[in-house]
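Worked example

This section walks through a single chain of length 419. The input is the sequence exactly as stored; nothing has been trimmed or padded.
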Amino acid sequence: MLFGSSGIRQMFDQRLLSLAPIVGAAVAQNAKHIVFGTDSRTSREILANAVISGLISNGADVIYGGICPTPTVAFCAGFADAGVMITASHNPEPYNGIKLFRSDGSSYTLAQQKEIEDEVEHPSWSKWDEQGVLTDADLITPHKEAILTSVCIPENLTVVVDCGNGAGGQITPKLFEESGATVISVNCDPAGKFARPSEPLEKNLLHIPKLMKKIDADCAVVNDGDADRMMAFDNWGRYIDGDHLLMLFAKYLDAKQVVTTVDASMAIEEIAEVHRTPVGDSFVSEELISWGTFGGEPSGSWIFPKHSLCPDGPYAAALFAEISGEWNVAEELDAMPRYTILRDSLETKHGKEILSGLGADKPTDGIRLTEENGWCLIRASGTEPKIRCTAEGRTRDDAKRMLDAGMTRIRNAIHQIKE
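Given that input, the structure is written out below as tokens.
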């Protein structure tokens, strides 16, 4: 399989570079007008050129926007047949990859991914006189204007913006600057090498609360490498975990139907009707096509269907600023339910076999065990030889009981394989 839960993503090497033009040609089989962008990684240009060569060689016209966020490409795909993004999202700099988007901003469906994989096995190319054309274009401006049209950022706000030297630096600070807010930009130059780990986890952002206190900032927003993720800090300088940011957006938008993933807190079910999907923003966006008014996952992917079906970090940052101008965010968060979440894992080379034996249709999707006062999720890691178990309970004892139940199932399954 080429595709993971969020496109094609690998260590950048000759194997990925050789695959790139074949993937491009496969995409061009059914899409002849393509918008195209890259994140800031140093391997972006050679990989972009390789994919573009495949697209053009199979008759597709390509509109190239250079360095821009993934949600920018997905948004502008609405003016084309498809969007292609060169990115490894929040992975470290040695990685790169390819994300594919439909004209509604959603990721290619599983069926479309299968079509691409089949085409890669049997590539085809157009004749010399049927080649496509490459054109440079500004993709940032239409995306930025669409956000500013639908979100109101207060002029009197002081905001810290950290884009982690990724593509978000091309748009997120500008949203605040053009709205008249005071912006303190950190790591917003698209350097291609990250001053901090790209994933917007609290442990990677310890500098933010200190800076907020120093300048008396009202809030802070953070993007990952391709700006499809956004996390935030409240007016007290506290990092907001993904479950509570999900609830904050849902409450502010008065979203009664929310799509989220199987690893999200059950607390969201106290404020909205919920549909759950496997872990991965592509599953959330696909569900939102037919149901729901807002969606997201605790990793920081927030999807606003009226805007786009792609997780949009810059849009989410602007909306969070709007909320910060109207509400005391810290007080809102403290009034929300908060339950204990525990995690554990076991190393094993038999993750897929074990999860299949436990009844999972797909090992990396896992299985979810639910009781009245808690749940646990057992899933095989997609990147490491591990099985992970996440549990939540209304009390710590409930969470511990669910975690123990999940880990016992894993150990019993491993023991059976060894026998």
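What to look for: The chain has a mean pLDDT of 95.
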